[in-house]
Amino acid sequence: MAKYEKFIKLVAIGKMRDRLFDAKCQEFSSRLNAYGKCETVILPDSNVANEGKAILREVDKERTAMVIALTEEGKEFTTAEFSNVIGQIDRKIVFIIGGPFGLAPEVKQRADMLWSLSKMTFTHEMARMLFYEQVYRALNLLNGGAYHH
Length: 149
Known about the structure:
The chain has helices spanning about 20-30, 50-60, 80-90, 105-110, 125-140, and strands at about 5-15, 35-45, 65-75, 95, 115. With about 150 residues, the chain is an alpha/beta fold.
């Protein structure tokens, strides 16, 4: 049993169109199950305002969860820093990844934390793959695994 078990939920906009990115997302999502439950909710593409409303409806289902939105104006972390942040959260974590045009302002306001993967811009598919890999890496590090060197 993992020392740091987490319930992770990802709310993301749009289906993965690139099969290679999708396969990596599936791989890391499966690996996350060693550290708790990982749930993914994919909402349909629309405009930013409608996507924001759909995201907020999904987030409202998780009233006690810590909400972390991935956005370019969010805080950047090293892997070790991010791992420590995740390790200190004692409740379900809902992560949000928007579509190609980002997140509605209301979604960013609702979030408990804004997280940036990088100062660079990635496609939302790349961001999703990097998200899964980094969350897996953080939890593996917390649990004494060898994935992070």
